[in-house]
């Protein structure tokens, strides 16, 4: 397989292997930590989980990525990136230990969320540092293209594996807050391993170069802000990219609202015990992940035959029809089927949107537009959790929310179809 061959070529590069090890350990720890937060908020016996609590947890997990992302590069161009990977992961290990203590002590919710927010905020710098360091460990532009394709994919798989490991540990550990703390500590151990892996690379290997001329910090922040404004103006002139991003943000909103719905159903409607609810949630995550994988295989074929916007119309229309058909019974098996369908349609639209933006936005503005895209993508998910918190009853059965989401998918499909015809 070409992917296996490309990876074999890259793994011959020693420093690439070391940087990849840091990424895999770091993102596996992210997967463990995020599942630990979710299960503590939703499935802890000491808590009466509510949609509002879930919305708060999602805000903690996702907003730092969006708010800090565009400005992380300003600091990464002033600090040694190897040190960012080392100290960032060490700091997260310490903060995760603090989170575990707060869980055991049943501390106030605001303290717990403050600790979780600190961990996820540092994560933005670590991920940006991993991307910025990649050209320093690859020896040719051709291999850099392969590395940019394979490294994030491997990191995503590591995060998924970390989340699966967290589910297994959570189910195997004794019931109660102790099990949540054990999972958080597992994440702390992985963060520590990522920090120690960074020590295998020389301090100056990953840059930036000491001789590089640097602007003042305040000036750099101002330039970044002006650059984002210029990116918005450029996007306004690229109607296809703007429409695709708007549609994808709305589809992400729908996916987020249904995620909260499934969490509440697993917690209160479908299971008689905490372990049974966790197992059902694991099945739902697996079904959605299978949909994501199917989208990666199907989308190139579908885009070739339907066109980019045509495939997005198909995804939105399929979700508009199948989501209420499978979701309104509020039964586990149809809802797991819906999770697969929504994973397929959401990821299919996401892949296509990425392609539309890459193809229609000028290279000079592409980074800024993708930063804005990241903000919209995560803010839509958090906003969906907030809307679900207002509409969902405690057991998660809300026909009004399911119908609203189906109508939203229908509007997306009609809007994109009209734009595609024009």
Write a structural description.
There is one protein chain. This protein has 422 residues and is an all-alpha fold. It folds into two domains: 1-214, Growth Hormone, Chain: A (Up-down Bundle), CATH 1.20.1250.20; 237-422, Growth Hormone, Chain: A (Up-down Bundle), CATH 1.20.1250.20. It contains 14 helices and no strands. The protein has helices at 2-10, 14-43, 51-76, 81-104, 109-133, 141-172, 177-198, 217-236, 239-269, 274-306, 308-327, 332-360, 363-391, 399-421. Helix 4 (81-104) packs antiparallel against helix 5 (109-133), helix 4 (81-104) packs antiparallel against helix 7 and helix 10 crosses helix 12 (332-360). The longest helix is centred in the last third of the chain and has 33 residues, at 274-306. The protein is globular, with a radius of gyration of 22 Å. The two termini are 40 Å apart. The mean pLDDT is 82.
TL;DR?
Helix content is 84%, strand content 0%. By secondary structure, the protein is mostly helical.
What order do the helices and strands come in, and which of them pair?
Elements: H1 2-10, H2 14-43, H3 51-76, H4 81-104, H5 109-133, H6 141-172, H7 177-198, H8 217-236, H9 239-269, H10 274-306, H11 308-327, H12 332-360, H13 363-391, H14 399-421
Helix pairs in contact: 1-6, 2-3, 2-4, 2-5, 2-6, 2-7, 3-5, 3-8, 3-13, 4-5, 4-7, 6-7, 8-13, 9-10, 9-12, 9-13, 9-14, 10-11, 10-12, 11-12, 11-14
